[in-house]
Design goal:
The chain has 459 residues and is of the alpha/beta class. The protein folds into 3 domains: 80 residues, Arc Repressor Mutant, subunit A; 109 residues, Aspartate Aminotransferase, domain 1, CATH 3.90.1150; 238 residues, Type I PLP-dependent aspartate aminotransferase-like (Major domain) (Aspartate Aminotransferase, domain 2). The protein is 38% helix and 15% strand. It is built from 13 helices and 17 strands. It has an 8-stranded mixed sheet with strand order 6-13-12-11-10-7-8-9, with helices on both faces. It has a 5-stranded mixed sheet with strand order 5-16-17-15-14, with helices on both faces. A hairpin with a 2-residue loop joins strand 8 and strand 9. Helix 5 packs across helix 10. The protein binds pyridoxal-5'-phosphate. Pyridoxal-5'-phosphate (PLP) binds next to helix 6.
């Protein structure tokens, strides 16, 4: 039975337990307090109100309250009724497995400096967006996403990333990972993924029923010149990170960009452009999107994971016309559509240009961090992939300490770093560290870099 408490919380009490009605009520209250459903300091209804709600005698409720007060679950306050005191401490379980201690400094790649999430701007954008939103915004919506966000993104992507984007060809997704899964499901056939690349993305593609093929990467980026040949003959799609290869950090060479597009055209295949950190380029203007070279053969995917934060789970696809319908259908079947309130807030953030301002300030922050990293390490340990993004690669040449040794000695000092190892499809072709320089807080970053330098120099 659901009882509305004096302070307006609802609680379901199951009085079907064996024994008398008083014992059943006591048992139900104990269980609710222990499980946390009734939090400490929650005011209980008066004995009269609860008795009426549960069709019990008032004495029965009063006796149950007294019993639980005596047991320490409830406390009776003169003049303010009865409230939850909190569950008596439970005996500690015999053996609790020790949780791994969080590293003191975290230089693993993957996240931006999440502490810079523009909380105030986001609140203002949400407030403005909701004040102006039609009532229908709170209902089920278009599987492609909110029209406000698709329009704002089409404009932003055109001017900032050189994407040829039409709001009618866009699909808003819950993160890049959902976009990749929907594509894998829709394309069905084998998909070439960069080697090295994120193991998690290989898992996602396989989970959605497509075979993964390895597309090697060299100093010019992904070997798109190999597409359509030998082991890659059956590929129906190739997923690339052209602006800043993940994890090696190279920018895809113009000849390789042309080769990718030519392959997609001649084989009726698609190139998937994962533009996960394309906004962050330090040595010159960001490299424009590959998508503009052939919008009918390239799927562009952007994400808010690096520009704002992974927590938003917001990403966007710009699709060739022939993929629009099957992907919209797949998205609808996956989750109807991505939640709308965050989409409206992001649309406002973009149209008010607060998004651009935030990115500019992050770019400056990461550029300074990158410069410090190069300054402290660069002479003895050349860094790869530093022209863009928020991670760099440190080569570990054969003959010196390997990845496992360096990662372990860093961990012993309280420093977490990434390694290339898990990124290879099969046998590792090289050893190296991946340093994500955005993650630590601004205050702790210099100390994290010092510790990395000392670890690498064996001091
Ligand atoms: C290569 C790459 N692509 C895409 C993403 C973004 O993924 P999502 O939008 O699912 O957070 C990341 C995030 O770390 C990434 O490393």
């Amino acid at each position: 039975m659901n009882i509305e408490w004096a302070n307006s919380v609802d609680l379901h009490l199951d009085l079907e337990a064996a024994g008398g009605r008083r014992q059943a009520l006591e048992q139900a209250l104990r269980e609710a307090i222990r499980s946390g459903r009734l939090a400490p300091q929650t005011r209980l209804p008066s004995t009269r109100a609860l008795a009426a709600g549960l069709h019990l005698a008032r004495n029965t409720v009063a006796a149950a309250y007294e019993q639980l007060t005596a047991e320490g679950y409830l406390s009776a306050r003169v003049g303010s009724g009865t409230e939850v005191a909190g569950a008596p401490p439970r005996p500690a379980p015999a053996s609790v497995p020790a949780a791994p201690a969080a590293p003191r400094f975290d230089l693993r790649p993957g996240s931006p400096e999440v502490g810079t999430f523009p909380v105030d701007a986001w609140l203002r954008a949400t407030r403005r967006a909701l004040a102006g939103a039609p009532v229908s915004a709170y209902d089920y919506g278009d599987p492609r996403g909110r029209p406000e966000l698709r329009a704002a993104l089409a404009d932003y992507l055109g001017r900032a990333r050189g994407v040829l984007a039409d709001p009618e060809r866009m699909l808003i997704c819950s993160g890049y990972v959902q976009a990749l899964g929907l594509l894998a499901r829709t394309i069905g056939g084998p998909i070439a993924l960069e080697d090295p690349g994120l193991a998690f993305h290989r898992e996602v593609v396989r989970h959605h029923g497509a075979e993964v093929l390895a597309l090697p990467v060299d100093e010019l980026g992904a070997r798109t010149d190999l597409l359509g040949r030998d082991g890659l003959l059956s590929a129906r799609a190739a997923v690339l990170t052209p602006a800043h290869q993940y994890p090696m950090g190279v920018t895809l060479h113009p000849a390789r960009r042309r080769a990718a597009v030519a392959w997609a055209r001649t084989h009726d295949a698609v190139v998937v452009e994962d533009d996960y950190d394309g906004e962050f380029r330090y040595d010159r203007q960001p490299v424009g999107a590959l998508q503009a070279m052939s919008p009918e053969h390239v799927v562009y995917i952007g994400t808010a994971a690096k520009t704002l934060g992974p927590a938003l789970r917001l990403a966007w696809m710009v699709l060739p016309e022939r993929l629009m319908e099957p992907l919209t259908a797949a998205k609808r079947l996956a989750d109807l559509h991505t939640e709308s309130i965050g989409q409206l807030a992001l649309a406002d953030l973009i149209t008010s240009h607060a998004y651009d301002r935030h990115i500019r300030s992050c770019r400056l922050n990461y550029r300074r961090r990158r410069d410090l990293l190069i300054d402290r390490l660069g002479r003895r340990h050349p860094l790869g992939g530093v022209a863009a993004g928020m991670h760099a690669v440190i080569d570990l040449p054969a003959g010196g300490p390997g990845e496992a040794d360096v990662v372990a000695s860093a961990a012993a000092r309280g420093l977490a770093v990434g390694a290339l190892g898990p990124h290879w499809h099969t046998a590792p072709a090289a050893q190296g560290l991946i340093i994500g320089y955005a993650t630590p807080s601004r205050a702790s970053y210099p100390a994290a870099v010092d510790l990395l330098a000392r670890t690498l120099h064996g001091r």
